[in-house]
């Protein structure tokens, strides 16, 4: 194969004589700011202990409004607050849910034991 066909022809002046200029273009892409609105809605409906879910939902709506207006700093601030309230609501909801299950289990076993004892005493008197 002939190597001349793969060579790139040099055009223009030598590099040392041409001034080098650079152009920097800052392209601001759309930053994705999560507003956590679905998580807040879930916590409002299912885990609304101490109204933390409602507060988280309110901050999520504020974050979405700020994002629609174009205030990304405000949207990030409200989204961060909503995230904190969502985490708090979730943790409190899980802890109180576990405590409720344990207390219901203890109440069930106590009631069952009392019923068994009452039935055994009733058999003794008949």
TrEMBL record:
<dbReference type="GO" id="GO:0005886">
    <property type="term" value="C:plasma membrane"/>
</dbReference>
<dbReference type="Pfam" id="PF04505">
    <property type="entry name" value="CD225"/>
</dbReference>
<dbReference type="GO" id="GO:0035456">
    <property type="term" value="P:response to interferon-beta"/>
</dbReference>
<dbReference type="GO" id="GO:0060337">
    <property type="term" value="P:type I interferon-mediated signaling pathway"/>
</dbReference>
<feature type="transmembrane region" description="Helical">
    <location>
        <begin position="37"/>
        <end position="59"/>
    </location>
</feature>
<dbReference type="GO" id="GO:0034341">
    <property type="term" value="P:response to type II interferon"/>
</dbReference>
<dbReference type="GO" id="GO:0045071">
    <property type="term" value="P:negative regulation of viral genome replication"/>
</dbReference>
<keyword id="KW-0472">Membrane</keyword>
<dbReference type="GO" id="GO:0046597">
    <property type="term" value="P:host-mediated suppression of symbiont invasion"/>
</dbReference>
<comment type="similarity">
    <text>Belongs to the CD225/Dispanin family.</text>
</comment>
<protein>
    <submittedName>
        <fullName>Interferon-induced transmembrane protein 1-like</fullName>
    </submittedName>
</protein>
<feature type="transmembrane region" description="Helical">
    <location>
        <begin position="87"/>
        <end position="110"/>
    </location>
</feature>
<dbReference type="InterPro" id="IPR007593">
    <property type="entry name" value="CD225/Dispanin_fam"/>
</dbReference>
<keyword id="KW-0812">Transmembrane</keyword>
<dbReference type="GO" id="GO:0051607">
    <property type="term" value="P:defense response to virus"/>
</dbReference>
<keyword id="KW-1133">Transmembrane helix</keyword>
<dbReference type="InterPro" id="IPR051517">
    <property type="entry name" value="IFITM_antiviral_protein"/>
</dbReference>
<dbReference type="GO" id="GO:0035455">
    <property type="term" value="P:response to interferon-alpha"/>
</dbReference>
